[in-house]
Amino acid sequence: MLRRLPLAVAALLVAAFAGLMLSKTMPYYSFEKGIHFLTTKSDATNDSRLFRLGFYVHITTALIVLVLGLLQWLPVVARRGEARLHRRLGQGYVLGILALAAPSGLILARFANGGLVAQVGFSLQCVVWWATTWLAYRAARQRLWPRHVEWLVRSYAVTLAALALRGESYVMFYVFHTKPIETYLTVTWLSWVGNLVLAELLLELGLGRYFLREILGRLQRKSAASEALA
To answer: Domain ranges in the chain?
Structure first.
């Protein structure tokens, strides 16, 4: 029970963040140009069809894959669900990132405030996000389950960069009193690179083996039992 407590706390944190992001995302669906984050963009950027396409695709799909990814990592879903449900959730997560969230993020990176440093940082984040998700998908297709879990941990670490970016920005600005531009350019990189470093440390400590046993192991046993009863 105690071993699962950190995972439960992390899941509640991600769920709360998803709810917060949903509440902040909804006003944008009025499609007005001069609200919230969009006020930081120039009129030319706000008038760009490419930017607006990337923006609305990204804010929608990034939130969806955040939730789908969270459901994938919850052992309670594996205990109550079935292999088909896990596979469908995984397919939605992978397709959402590869086809929509990461490509639209590259569009937004082109229009990022902060110049070349921010543009390169966000672009690399999207490339790494796409690559880690693709490698996780390929490992699943090859039935290399330990590798599949490890790459998914890395992929979801990048998915959680949005959460890290906001948390790190708050700490840097209000605790360490950094300047806004220093805060922004730092978290542009730290949010996803830091998450990947943390993911590697957790994998070394056995997080991948835990998920392999608690989620994929349960699903495989349940699938085998269903086949035996058929």
So the answer is: 2-229
